[in-house]
Write a structure and sequence with these properties.
By secondary structure, the protein is of the alpha/beta class. The protein contains six helices and seven strands. About 35% of the residues lie in helices and about 25% in strands.
Length: about 180
């Protein structure tokens, strides 16, 4: 059975499909996204929006980057920080505050006509002193997960999926789908 992953981001789709499998089909669909620092609030709204438009099993995803020096900002608003000051300037910004500690949190939601589930995972890490690597997207060039010396952008998809909150959430979803006959 097909499950529609509502995203226009090819990188997210590639990562999800590697974990969940070929029944996941990418579907670019304009859906309203509320603005909140909290990924769980964002994901619940996106999930309802996507399902109401497709009326088929859907997956949605949202990731936040929580910076200790900024008391958790930007969280799910990371896209706005990336477009306003640029990923390359986030390390410089944090250097003024004295802490490079960060965590990435991903919420993956699934909905069909009977069920609505959200799977949330976190990866603790730090922000690199400068962008490194050519792979990935978003904040991948500056996020170094705990247990590694590489940024996500220095890793291939398989290695990144060993660490990433997105992959952890998709593994939880995959387990749920297998248990429930998908």
């Amino acid at each position: 059975m097909k499950i529609y992953f509502v995203t226009s981001n090819n990188g997210k789709f590639t990562e999800a499909r590697e974990v969940v499998g070929s029944q996941v089909v990418k579907k670019a669909l304009a859906i309203e996204e509320i603005q909140s620092i909290d990924v769980s609030k964002v994901i619940e709204h996106k999930l309802d929006e996507a399902y109401s438009k497709l009326k088929k099993p859907v997956i949605v995803e949202d990731t936040g980057l929580y910076l200790k020096a900024l008391r958790g900002f930007p969280g799910a608003l990371i896209k706005h920080l990336e477009t306003s000051i640029g990923v390359k300037n986030i390390p410089r910004l944090l250097s003024f505050y004295g802490s490079m500690e960060a965590k990435s949190e991903t919420a993956v939601g699934f909905r069909d006509r009977r069920t609505r589930k959200v799977f949330i995972s976190t990866t603790v890490g730090r922000i690199a002193d400068r962008p490194r690597g050519k792979n990935g997207f978003g904040f991948d060039p500056i996020f170094v997960p705990e247990g590694s010396r590489k940024t996500y952008a220095e890793m291939g998809v398989g290695e990144k999926n060993r660490f990433s909150a997105r992959a952890k959430s998709f593994r939880k979803l995959h387990s749920y789908l297998k248990k429930n006959g998908y």
